[in-house]
């Protein structure tokens, strides 16, 4: 019977979306455009030359309104660059690999460039205690899966962002608990 198991039954992966989402791209563009607009309005008031196509900012006095516009524009532009780089690097992307053949669970996530750019955790099946399903409804619903270890650590298995549909996360939790032969608990 073991010889008839498919590769998918011996190991499988679940992928986590990173920061490359349409909503993140939208907000990065909005913040960048707003920051650039404020910055150019402040410079227009300083140079008494209109640098914007859609409005005339030369009537604004540089002190104090122009300085504030330049400050807000600089902060907005820096935040926009940060958001764009986060999307470019796809921070948060990763996968969870469950392998009966190796008797290991591998959790991989991408982070910001640097010394700890990639996070890779491996756990033996003997270290696993349960799968925890965390559900909170309301204005800010939260639906997450955690891998609970014997030493009481809880490792998140789902990414952040929009909440997963209730039936999907319940199905995923049951599937994982059966596959890993561990308990399923709810919070």
| The CATH topology of the largest domain | PH-domain like
Number of helices, where a helix is a run of at least 4 consecutive DSSP H or I residues: 4
Tell me the helix content: 25-40%
Radius of gyration: 24 Å
Strand order of the largest sheet: 1-2-3-4
Strand content: 25-35%
Structural class: alpha+beta
Order of helices and strands: HEHHEEEEEEHE
Largest sheet: 4 strands, antiparallel
Low-pLDDT residue intervals, each spanning 5 or more residues: 1-8
The global form is: elongated
Distance between the termini: 37 Å
CATH architecture of the largest domain: Roll
Quick take:
The chain is α+β, with helices and mostly antiparallel strands. It folds into 2 domains: 2-18 and 91-186, PH-domain like; 23-89, no CATH class. The chain is 39% helix and 27% strand.
What does this structure look like?
The structure is a single chain. The protein has 2 domains: 2-18 and 91-186, PH-domain like, CATH 2.30.29.30; 23-89, no CATH class. The strands form 2 sheets. A 4-stranded antiparallel beta sheet has the order 1-2-3-4. It has a 4-stranded mixed beta sheet with strand order 7-6-5-8, covered by helices on one side. It is of the alpha+beta class and 187 residues long. It is elongated, with a radius of gyration of 24 Å. It is 39% helix and 27% strand. It is built from 4 helices and 8 strands; from the N terminus they run H-E-H-H-E-E-E-E-E-E-H-E. Helix 2 (22-47) runs antiparallel to helix 3. It has helices spanning 7-10, 22-47, 62-89, 166-180, and strands spanning 11-16, 94-99, 104-110, 118-124, 128-136, 142-149, 154-156, 183-186.
